[in-house]
Write a structure and sequence with these properties.
The structure holds two protein chains of two kinds. By secondary structure, chain A is mainly α. Chain A has two helices and no strands. In chain B, the strands form four sheets. In chain B, strands 1-3-2-8-10-9-16-17-13-11-12 form an eleven-stranded mixed beta sheet, with helices on both faces. Chain B has a two-stranded antiparallel ribbon with strand order 4-5. The relative contact order of chain B is 0.14. In chain B, strand 16 and strand 17 form a beta hairpin. The longest helix of chain B has 26 residues, at 272-297. Chain B contains 14 helices and 17 strands. Chain B is 41% helix and 19% strand. The chains are: A mainly alpha, B alpha+beta.
């Protein structure tokens, strides 16, 4: 980041709640905790796959 | 009797379509405890039986998963949201079943919106496994598995996005085929994921599945011919991830195929560990897109597990879907040399037998894991590539069924069923009956 602010934790409950709200969906804290558990598995795998794609795309 | 035998008797007029329907309706009534059906079309089925006139499935009583539309009958999808939704026309697959002469007995229980592998809808109750009613049937086509296993229909249709035909077929001890993606039309079927949804048969035998597939796809499947000369790749990485007793049953089944003349070799599937993630990157956002209006307006009407999965699809980064598309392409490309070399791949259909209703975790090789996570590596690799894949009964562990997965090249559904038929000609696992059936 160039403005000195750090990126929000993609798994923070507040961040997830705000994202859901932007889509017009209101989510309970219990659901957000469960979603966090779900994403906690997928997001690192997603990051790894994206890194592999980036490596494949490198000239 | 099997669907194939029943059809023979119907054609020979040894019994009438009405008698066949009456017989199945009596069994459905006697086994209400299994909760296989959400809606039974008793009067309509009897009227349809009286009106049927020939066709390859002449008068055969079959049933369909309750995400598949039957005109004039409700399609609940196992949900509260669609509890009273009545379809105004038949799904394409139902039209094709009718054209083949089949009679539609009713609508079968499903995991809510076909989005889960347990068939424990909080709105309609769990489908119970005929082999042990305190255990799940698997899912999401759990009612279809139970109906086939308990003779509550001569054959059934399920849908399979990430394993939903193969899982219940395996856990209920019957035969199920996820057809090649795109082979069977999905019009009139409530969607889970447009990319991966398929409709296919669950029945007693491979021959029964072939009869149903031919009605659905307009194919002419010949299950005769055996496996001599077929090259089968055994996916050892999946044997190593299954419970040892399950792996042993599958190894014995593959040895039987080798004894019948197939050439079996161990193989490695490139990208096997990535397949589940890639499928989820595509499936989760697609399912959420289907449900977004209801997710906004009535989230409380979903069961908690389905709601959480839909929210996960909503909250994935936008790049996830693109990454899913790109990595699926590379996964399929990496699979091509393997599919060029082997006619079939073989593996356990599932790593474990059916868990008890209410248990979300299973133990695999001493480690506790979520059931939904344990099943992914056994199902997603084949769904992701759009391959035909069957689960074929190949043994029992603790009185519960175990299944052999047979996976074919794209559009080689007939080869899958031919190998399954050859195996069933040499074994009798598919003829075993659950207690009380």
């Amino acid at each position: 980041m160039t403005d000195g602010q750090s990126s929000p934790d993609p798994l923070a409950v507040e961040h997830l709640a705000r994202l859901a709200e932007e889509h017009g969906v209101v989510v309970s804290d219990d659901d957000l905790e469960a979603v966090r558990g779900f994403l906690d598995t997928i997001l690192p795998e997603l990051a790894r796959l994206e890194a592999e794609l980036a490596a494949d795309d490198a000239p | 009797v099997s669907l194939a035998t029943l059809v023979q008797r119907l054609h020979a007029r040894e019994l009438s379509p009405r008698e066949a329907v009456e017989s199945y309706l009596a069994r459905i009534e006697a086994r209400r405890d299994l909760n296989a059906y959400i809606t039974v079309r008793a009067e309509e089925a009897l009227a349809e039986a009286d009106a049927t006139s020939g066709g390859p499935l002449h008068g055969a009583p079959v049933a369909v998963k309750d995400v598949i539309d039957v005109a004039g009958t409700r399609t609940t999808a196992g949900s509260a949201i669609l509890r009273d939704h009545v379809a105004d026309r038949d799904a394409a697959v139902v039209s094709r079943l009718r054209e083949a002469g089949a009679v539609i007995l009713g609508k079968l229980n499903t995991h809510e919106f076909a989005y889960g592998a347990l068939t424990t809808s909080p709105h309609f109750g769990p489908a119970r496994n005929p082999w042990a009613p305190e255990h799940v049937c698997g899912g999401s086509s759990g009612g279809s598995g139970a109906a086939a296993a308990a003779d509550l229909a001569a054959g059934a249709l399920g849908t399979d996005t990430g394993g939903s035909i193969r899982i219940p077929a395996c856990l209920c001890g019957v035969t199920g085929l996820r057809p090649t993606s795109g082979l069977v039309p999905t019009g009139g079927v409530f969607p889970t994921s447009w990319t991966f949804d398929t409709v296919g048969p669950i029945a007693r035998t491979a021959k029964d599945c072939a009869l149903l597939l031919d009605a659905l796809a307009g194919t002419r499947t010949d299950v005769a011919g055996g496996v001599r000369g077929l090259r089968i790749g055994l996916v050892e990485a999946l044997l190593e991830r299954a419970e040892p007793v399950v792996a042993a049953a599958v190894e014995a089944a593959v040895a039987e195929l080798a004894a019948l003349g197939a050439a079996v070799e161990p193989v490695e599937v490139p990208g096997l560990d990535d397949a589940g993630t890639i499928q989820q990157l595509l499936m989760l956002p697609e399912a959420t897109a289907v449900h977004l209006p209801w997710l906004r307006e009535r989230p409380g009407d979903y069961g908690a597990d389905v709601r959480v999965r839909l929210l996960a699809g909503l909250l994935l980064p936008g790049t996830a879907y693109v990454t899913g598309l790109r990595t699926r392409r590379s996964y399929r490309a990496r699979l091509e040399p393997l599919l060029a070399r082997y006619d079939l791949l073989a593996a356990p259909a599932m790593p474990v037998t059916a868990p008890r209703i209410g248990e979300e975790a299973v133990v695999v090789r001493g480690e506790q894991t979520l059931f939904r996570r344990a099943l992914i590596p056994f199902n997603s690799p084949w769904s992701l590539a759009g391959l035909p894949a069957a689960s074929v009964p190949c043994g029992f562990v603790g009185g519960l069924p175990v299944g052999l997965a047979l996976v074919g090249r794209p559009l080689a559904d007939a080869t899958v069923l031919r190998a399954a038929h050859a195996y069933q000609g040499a074994t009798d696992w598919h003829e075993r009956r659950a207690p009380g059936v």
